[in-house]
């Protein structure tokens, strides 16, 4: 089944519905054939097929018991055929690894193009929100840690 976004604000909602229902076909159908997707650690996929494969794996292994919830959505139209959609989300239930996985907050950015009666995603980027931090710093041992320079 192909998922159709009738307005730009539909994209994050449809993305979350497909994620939570593990409908990777529907999730991938939100993207153009040659769309780009950058995940929270900078892995960059360059096609709908690559986005499908990455999410098929992720929703089977890393996020198999996860739930995404939608927060604030902001739509900025760039003329009549393009839009940028920012969407805050919360992720719970990530598969535990070396530590117990807690609640994550993230911000998605979707760049969209209109096709007659529906919208498709040209590019998306997912960024983790790190409360209380301004940036990251690479430590001498290679570990990346959030830091806050305010009040120094």
Summarize this structure as a short list of keywords or feature phrases:
152 residues; alpha+beta; six-stranded mixed sheet; two-stranded antiparallel ribbon; 3 helices; 8 strands; globular
What does this 3D model show about the protein?
The chain has 152 residues and is an alpha+beta fold. 20% of the residues lie in helices and 42% in strands. The chain has helices spanning 10-21, 24-28, 48-60, and strands at residues 31-38, 44-45, 67-77, 82-92, 104-115, 118-129, 135-138, 144-147. The strands form two sheets. A six-stranded mixed β-sheet has the order 2-1-6-5-4-3. Strands 7-8 form a two-stranded antiparallel ribbon. Strand 1 (31-38) and strand 2 form a beta hairpin. The N and C termini lie far apart (54 Å). The model has no long low-confidence stretch (mean pLDDT 93).
Proportion in β-strands: 35-45%
User: Please, how many helices?
Assistant: 3
Kindly report the average pLDDT value: 93
- Any idea what the shape is? globular
What is the H/E string? HHEEHEEEEEE
The share of residues in helices is: 10-25%
The main sheet comes to: 6 strands, mixed
Strand order of the largest sheet: 2-1-6-5-4-3
* Straight-line distance between termini: 54 Å
User: What value does the Rg take, in angstroms?
Assistant: 16 Å
Report the structural category: alpha+beta
Low-confidence stretches: none
The beta-strand count equals 8
